[in-house]
Amino acid sequence: MSIILPVAQRGEEILKLKAASVAESEFSSEWLQQLASAMHATMSARNGVGIAAPQVYISKRVIIVASRPNPRYPDAPEMDAVVMVNPEILEFSQETCLGEEGCLSVPNERSQVKRAQVVKVRYKTLTCDVVETVYEGFPARIVQHEVDHLNGVLFVDRT
Ligand code: K3U
Ligand code: ZN
Question: Is the CB of 72 under 6 A from ligand 1?
Fold first, then answer.
């Protein structure tokens, strides 16, 4: 059974902080696995396509990206949820695109945000394997939105 956590709301200090990197000693731990599991359950319970640890009151650099087709992005790819620990965006494409965003921490508000169309990301898995991959379109948008959360930035700060 997964735990569903409360979600921090706009205005709360936790959402304004720069989150701390996950330490070497935390990889492969029960704690990190349980955090990821609870984040996934919380995202799914709220019908989200992404979530960042500060949104569940944990100021650590962990995000989940889980693109799926939806009314705003009917052509979005369906992907298994990806847990990214200590993600870094290595490259942003020069090409940008406008797209609608929402946020579990900013209920009932959506707006158009300009983001890079393509990003190259490096992250670690829960077991500390290093992954480098490229995302385009909606998944790239989710990655940028979630990494913003790790740096204390909300999508409404970008409009
Ligand atoms: O599924 C959502 C959605 C909203 C607008 C357009 C498309 C989909 C709900 S909002 C959502 O899932 C956020 C989750 C958050 F806040 F925890 F990060 C992720 C997100 C949605 C849309 C664009 C970028 C990120
Ligand atoms: Zn958000």
Answer: yes
Any ligand 1 atom below 6 A from CB of 55: yes
Q: Kindly report, residue by residue over 8-39, the tens digit of the pLDDT.
A: 999 999 999 999 999 999 999 999 999 999 99
144 within 8 A of 119, measured Cβ to Cβ = yes
Question: Over the stretch 128-140, which tens digit does the pLDDT of each residue have?
Answer: 999 999 999 999 9
**Separation of first and last alpha carbons in the chain:** 38
Contact 8, 56 (CB under 8 A): yes
Which protein residue's CA is at the shortest distance from atom 17 of ligand 1?
Answer: 51
* pLDDT above 80: residue 65: yes
| Atom 4 (ligand 1) nearest CA | 102
CATH code reported for the domain at 13-152: 3.90.45.10
Q: Is 51 in the pocket of ligand 1 (CB under 6 A)?
A: yes
Q: Is 13 a catalytic residue?
A: no
